[in-house]
Amino acid sequence: MFPDEENKGYRFKPIYNGNEPILSSGGNAIVFKVTNEQGDLSALKLFNENIEGRFVRLTKISKYLENTSHSFFTPFKFVQKLIYVDVDDLREDEKFFPGVVMKWIEGESLETKLKKLVQDRDLGKIRKIAENFKDISIILLKEGVAHGDLKLSNILVDENLNLTLIDYDGMFVPTLTSETAIELGTPTYQHLNRELADYNSNIDHFSILLIYTSLLALSLNPLLYDAHNDGDNIIFNENDFKSPNDSVLFNYLFTLSEIKGFVYYLKLSALSPFIYIEDLINILNGIFPKPQINIFQKPLAVLSGDKGDLVWTTENCTYVRINGDELAMAGSKSFSFSDKNKFFFEYGNELLELQHEYVVNCYPKPEIISLSANNKDLKFDEELTLSWSAISFSRLILKYNQFEIDVTELSTYKIKNLGQSTKIKLLAFALETKYFTENILKVDVYYPIDLDITQDKRVVFPHRPVKLTINATNAQKITLEPLGVDLTGKKEYNVKTKSNLYFSIVAENKRYRQVFEGSIEVLSTPKYERKIVELPKLSLNIPSPIFQKINNIDSLTPKFERDFVKINKILDSFNLFLIILRIKIPFKSIKTKFISTTLKLLKYDEKK
Questions:
Q1: Is residue 5 one of the residues assigned to a domain?
Q2: Which residues form the signal peptide (predicted)?
Q3: 3-class DSSP assignment, residue 163
């Protein structure tokens, strides 16, 4: 059932072959041969699998085809609700299915046509089809579009051997940039590394070269079809691409000089991890990229006797040899260069072998034989005269401080007021190169010494320190004589002596000397005679205590006080504290014990 209001007016009637409708199926679609109400033949393509984004993708492809005039394309229309199928379990809006309507092209598939031509040994027509296919391929490559699934069954051939491409589901057009592929094409026609992410104008590269090379091979030897066709391919199979070096078919086709170039680049593509083939249009036209080698030396300016590297890069090469040694396609190798060194390069591929002789030009090394000065230890106001001798140089440059002077034509040079110690460089540059060698001459400039010494004491007792404060400029060494003490770098120094000292402080550099004279007077130590002091003899006559009974204890207090006073006076009158101090016995302790003993005696008297 085809409701007009839903399918934009399309009504179709299937064409039958006997009792069966004429159709073909493959991939995820079925194509019916139908007629419309006017009797025009059309191809009605219906999908048996729903793929997300198909409507948008086919709409953009349809728009591109409508605007192209190429006869090998057939414009089509994609209809979102093309047919209506009354399915019980589906909602009404789910009973519509999309499809593609295009003009029916009379002809047979190239797959069928080729088989007949091979059986008939019609090599000329096979070659004609190959060239027609090449022309279509070049147009696709130039316009930046790709079919996406090029194979013999997707190419129709009419009676004049004109070709038409069909099945545009996987096609790439510029408006689909940044999209992802929805299919990978038929495996036997695709590069082994192709992925869905590979979706651009280059995805047909491998298929184009494969189909063209296969058709050319069959136009030379149709027996290859029966020997290598398995129903899904032309003549190459997956094993040929996995191991092309071991492939019987690849090895045989290399013996056919007419197609050797196409076979070689198909083999290279199979071995490559990349699915794209550089410069494919020229390859299809038989213009094969020549092997190229780029050689240079490092450093570019080579000095005789020095080691250097030969560096090379190649394009379109499968081997490189230097003086017979097999090397990588790009790299470097170290050599000891001498003048007119020759290196013999052999390079190329299975199509072409080339040779190249590389000659190294060496230059003698510049040499500075001598560099001298009238004096390398210069007073600040003296003039410096430099002299030198050099050979094998293109330029001589003298450098010092901030100055750079070309002295190529000179052998001596005078410098007034050098000002400071300086490293003077003489640079000799080699012939025809920036390489240089240099000699360095160190010239030291000396200024008068300023020496300032202060001395904190001039008269001291023996071994008492005398501090010297030292302030010196422009001095390399400072020495205290005659003690031989190195004072270099010191700001202070303490001198100790037991007798009078006359000294000098000498500050010097290689051209100047400054001396400070000083002295220290040492006083004699006072002498004392040692005497023994005889202490006075003490005689204490303490009367024997008289004890009497006291009835009233209160009457004792005045007598106690008087006794204490007497005892203290006795102790004070004889300076007993001096004696106690001499023998290191605490006076207070003796006094306390003495009083305590007396009191005890008095108490004893009281008891008695």
A1: no
A2: none
A3: strand
Q: What is the DSSP string of 223-261?
A: HHHHHH--SSSSS--HHHHHSGGG-HHHHHHTT-GGGHH
Q: Which two tokens stand for residue 498?
A: 């037991």
- Which tokens in the block code for residue 470? 């030292």
Report the C-alpha gap between 10 and 74 in whole angstroms.
Answer: 18
CATH number for position 465: 2.60.40.10
Contact 342, 319 (CB under 8 A): no
Is 443's pLDDT higher than 90? yes
- How far is C-alpha 441 from the geometric centre of its chain's CA atoms? 39
Residues 6+ apart with CB under 8 A from 532: none
Residue 120 above 90 pLDDT?
Answer: yes
Q: Categorise residue 140: left if φ over 0, alpha if ψ from -120 to 50, beta otherwise.
A: alpha
Cα separation, 293 vs 348, in Å, equals 9
CB 341 within 8 A of CB 333: no
How many helices (H) and strands (E) are present in the chain, helices listed first?
A: 12, 36
Residue position matching structure tokens 């020229």? 282
- Tally of CB atoms within 10 A around 177: 11
CA gap 86, 93 in Å, rounded? 10
CB 302 within 8 A of CB 311: no
CA distance 127 to 387: 84
Q: Is residue 162, in this structure, part of any structural domain at all?
A: yes
Could you give the 3-state DSSP secondary structure of residue 562? helix
Task: Report the alpha-carbon distance of residue 233 to residue 225 in Å, rounded.
Answer: 10
pLDDT of residue 568: 59
In a domain? residue 532: no
Whole-number Å distance between alpha carbons of 402 and 415: 13
| CATH code of the domain containing 25 | 3.30.200
Dist. CA 482–CA 517, nearest whole Å:
11
Q: Is 30 within 8 Å of 105 (Cβ atoms)?
A: no
* Distant-in-sequence, close-in-space partners of 394: CB < 8 Å, separation ≥ 6: 366, 408, 429, 430, 431, 432
In this predicted model, what pLDDT tens digit does every residue of 397-420 receive, in sequence order? Answer: 999 998 999 999 999 999 998 989
Give, in degrees to the nearest 5, the angle at Cα 93 between 91 and 99: 125
> Residue 213: which of 127, 287, 139 has the closest Cα?
127
**Which amino acid makes up residue 468?**
L
What is the bridge-based pairing of β-strands 459-460 and 513-522?
Answer: parallel
Which of 382, 379, 384, 389 minimizes the C-alpha distance to 401? Answer: 384
Nearest to 371 by CA among 444, 445, 446, 442: 442
Non-local (6+) Cβ contacts of 531 within 8 A are none
Q: Indicate if the pLDDT at residue 296 is higher than 60.
A: yes
Could you tell me the two tokens for 56?
A: 């948008």
Rounded Cα gap, residues 242 and 220, in angstroms: 25
Both tokens of residue 149? 């699934």
Q: pLDDT at residue 606 above 60?
A: no
Count of C-beta atoms within a 10 Å radius of residue 108: 13
CB of 335 closer than 8 Å to CB of 307: yes
CA distance 98 to 43: 14
* Domain carrying residue 430: 367-444
Number of structural domains found in the chain: 6
Q: pLDDT tens digits, residue range 244-291?
A: 999 999 999 999 999 999 999 999 999 999 999 999 999 999 999 999
